[in-house]
């Protein structure tokens, strides 16, 4: 069976992604969530003309000839506006953020004045509108500030709060179930013997999923037994999860039971076997009935699982929340810092380090050992160097493409 290109596999995966339902959350809990409805300002900000500096509110024409001495008639502070007008020949002491009194049309900063009792002498002529923040200069009531599909960042929360919006409509977090398979697997700290393997996939894959906005439930480790595997898969499909992620058992050996177990539970595998290194034995399908559960079968190899989760699981979760996701890997330009060999038919994602910059482009060098079981090199890498299928040999200094390991 021919291997499916990475771009086609990702397009199929994203094509099956359906937006999740929306929910309303308090603004204090909205960081990192994706808007499902626009944020519309409920007030105008600033709500009135206000001072941008500490100084004096004046009529500019009263300072046309300097020095000009004006009579102080009061002060305007933030939250405590001066109640009356500024008449000819008068001034009001004003502080940053305070409302501009009626009749005033300029601010003279305090450094340009000399005060003597109840009089202030202006030493620099004022300019109409100088140092004044106009009402609505930031935004106005009814203005759309943020659109659906926007992921709320820390600075967005300040904008939403200033718009007098206390709650926002966001996409529900995807619910992800994670199943590991393999008789050889044990948990960290369990005292693994030489013939056993400490399960590591669940921690990296879970972290990637949570970073993409999901809630993750670890459903444990299944033995290499068909009955137990089918039972575990069935329980996960009945658990109301949006996505079921399996790690291990995705190849075609006697102990690779995930594909037949999924098929036995009615999952039609739209993707199985990708032209990808590392991570060829990747599966994707969807359960029937109701909204259906998306199923993503990752390889058991820890590096392969991480790369595949980065390439496929993270975009899937983002798309389900309404984020715009390109239907191909989000590659960035770079330059090679070392010679690389010609590639064969699979798209190759090599662990690489950034060793410098050439203009705006990072210069990257693949790590010397690319064995997909080497977790130290995965942790050491800065990026993945992407080699297209059948790419010819390339030399240091040639252009290349990379995939960030972090968002």
TrEMBL record:
Any GO BP: Mo-molybdopterin cofactor biosynthetic process
Q: What InterPro entries does the annotation carry?
A: MoaB/Mog-like_dom_sf, MoaB/Mog_dom, MoCF_biosynth_CS, MoeA-like, MoeA_C_domain_IV, MoeA_C_domain_IV_sf, MoeA_linker/N, MoeA_linker/N_sf
List the EC numbers from the record: 2.10.1.1
Its signal peptide is none
Gene Ontology terms, MF aspect = metal ion binding; molybdopterin molybdotransferase activity
The cofactor required is: Mg(2+)
Against SUPFAM superfamilies, the record matches this protein to: MoeA C-terminal domain-like, MoeA N-terminal region -like, Molybdenum cofactor biosynthesis proteins
Q: Which residues form a coiled coil?
A: none
State the reactions this protein catalyses: adenylyl-molybdopterin + molybdate = Mo-molybdopterin + AMP + H(+)
The keyword Oxidoreductase is assigned to this record:
no
Q: Quick check: keyword Transmembrane in the entry?
A: no
Q: Name one GO cellular component term.
A: cytosol
Supply the alphabetized keyword list: Magnesium, Metal-binding, Molybdenum, Molybdenum cofactor biosynthesis, Transferase
Q: In which pathway does it act?
A: Cofactor biosynthesis; molybdopterin biosynthesis
Ranges where the MoaB/Mog domain occurs: 177-319
Q: Which domain of life is it from?
A: Bacteria
Protein task = Catalyzes the insertion of molybdate into adenylated molybdopterin with the concomitant release of AMP.
The entry sums up its family as follows: Belongs to the MoeA family.
Q: What protein name is recorded for this chain?
A: Molybdopterin molybdenumtransferase
Q: Organism, per UniProt?
A: Starkeya nomas
């Amino acid at each position: 069976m021919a291997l499916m290109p990475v771009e086609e596999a990702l397009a199929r995966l994203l094509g099956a992604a359906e937006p999740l339902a929306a929910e309303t959350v308090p603004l204090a809990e909205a960081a990192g969530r994706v808007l499902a409805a626009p944020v519309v300002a409920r007030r105008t900000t600033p709500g009135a003309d206000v001072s941008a500096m500490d100084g004096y509110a004046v009529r500019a024409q009263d300072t046309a000839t300097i020095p000009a001495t004006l009579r102080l008639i009061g002060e305007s502070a933030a939250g405590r506006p001066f109640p009356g007008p500024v008449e000819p020949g008068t001034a009001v002491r004003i502080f940053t953020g305070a409302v501009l009194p009626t009749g005033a049309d300029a601010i003279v900063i305090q450094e340009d004045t000399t005060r003597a009792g109840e009089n202030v002498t202006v030493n620099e002529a004022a300019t109409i509108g100088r140092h004044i923040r106009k009402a609505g200069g930031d935004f106005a009531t009814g203005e759309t500030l943020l659109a659906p599909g926007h992921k709320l960042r820390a600075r967005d929360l300040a904008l939403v709060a200033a718009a007098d919006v206390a709650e926002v409509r966001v996409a529900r977090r995807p619910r992800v179930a994670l199943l590991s398979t393999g008789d050889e697997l044990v948990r960290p700290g369990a005292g693994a013997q030489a013939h056993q393997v400490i399960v590591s996939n669940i921690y990296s894959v879970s972290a990637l999923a949570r970073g993409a906005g999901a809630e993750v439930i670890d459903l444990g480790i299944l033995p290499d037994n068909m009955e137990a595997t089918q039972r575990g898969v069935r329980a996960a499909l009945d658990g109301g999860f949006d996505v079921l992620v399996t790690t291990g058992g995705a190849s075609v050996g006697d102990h690779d039971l995930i594909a037949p177990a999924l098929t036995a539970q009615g999952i039609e595998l739209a993707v199985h076997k990708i032209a990808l290194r590392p991570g060829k034995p990747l599966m994707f399908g969807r359960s029937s009935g109701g909204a259906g559960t998306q199923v993503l079968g990752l390889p058991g190899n820890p590096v392969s699982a991480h790369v595949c989760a980065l390439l496929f699981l993270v975009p899937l979760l983002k798309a389900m929340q309404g984020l715009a996701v390109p239907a191909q890997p989000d590659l960035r330009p770079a330059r090679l810092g070392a010679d690389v060999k010609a590639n064969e038919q699979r798209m190759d994602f090599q662990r690489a380090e950034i060793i410098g910059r050439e203009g705006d482009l990072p210069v990257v060098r693949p790590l010397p050992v690319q064995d997909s079981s080497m977790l130290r090199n995965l942790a050491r890498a800065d990026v993945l160097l992407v080699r297209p299928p059948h790419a010819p040999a390339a030399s240091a200094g040639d252009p290349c493409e990379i995939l960030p390991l972090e968002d």
